[in-house]
Each structure stands twice: as C-alpha cells, then as structure tokens.
Amino acid sequence: MATIFTHAFVGSSLSTCNKDKKLRLRLAWVLATLSILPDLDVISFRLGIAYSDPLGHRGLSHSIVFAVVLALIASLLFRPKKKILSKAWFKLYTLCFIALISHGLLDALTNGGLGVGFFIPFDNSRYFLPWQPLEVSPISIQNFLSPWGLEVILNEALWIWLPVIIFLIVLKLIRLSKKQAT
Hints:
Blueprint: H1 4-13, H2 21-36, H3 43-46, H4 64-78, H5 87-107, H6 141-144, H7 147-181
Helix pairs in contact: 1-2, 1-5, 1-7, 2-5, 4-5
C-alpha cells in the first residue's frame, strides 16, 4: 500500500478543483479523510480475516462499489442542503468518488501485497496496474520508522508528490492567466 501521507496528500489536493475558496479547506480535510478510509480494513488482520478474503486488506473497501456508495454518503453529509443530482452536488460527489478510488489506484501502483479488489463483490480477483513504481509501505510504525520507511517516502515523493505539486502549480498558473485575461 502507499503511505497514509500520500493517500491524504492526493485526496486533499483534489480540493483545488473546487472554485469555492470558503469551502476549500474543509473540503480538503474531507477528501483527505476519504482517501485514507479504505485502509481501515487493516483491522481485518486483528479480526482473523485472511488478506485474500473479499473483506481482507485491499478488498471490498478498495473497490469501485465501496467508492460509489461512500461518495454518495459523504457528499450528502458534507453539503446536505445541496439538491441531490444538481450540478454542484454532482461535482462534490465526483470529488468524493475520485478521492476514494484514488486509494486503490495508488495501492495498485505498489510492488507488494496481493493486489486490489477493484471489482469486489462481483469479482474477487485482485489487480495491480501494469506499471508499479511505488515501493509497498510497511504497515507497522516500527517498520515505517526504518530505512525501508524512508525509502518508501522518498519513492512516493518522486512518483506521486512531485507530479501532483507540478500539476497544482500549472493549475494555479492557468487560473491566474484566465483571471488576468478578464
């Protein structure tokens, strides 16, 4: 899996897609939380659920179905006064969905584990993306605070953080140029 920091960073960065600056910080927290949420399935290890089980780590909670349902709930809770299926609500729903599904996509870029159950409950197969540049993150804090953990952070900084930061800078420059043109 990718680190919790990278999941949160990617999720929170999606808030820049929202033009409402008043909501952006709160939305960043919500999207960061949603992007981390699928990893609550690590509790399955303590419950004796096998990793390969649909309810195991990187299973149902990393699936498209989970993202669809949880994005619906989150978008209704975050902006309860927004009319459902309105353009504003749909934009919020889409951001919530992307934050959730980004978790599985990042995990599918890693070089370890059993893969991601994107299609659970319809198909229990686990998948990786064809390109896996990310080092799998240690789960325990002890291992995370080791050379392995540092290697993972540096690897994610190169392959995820840097491209996202470049994208955000370009987005900001585009917005500034549009603002100056008007």
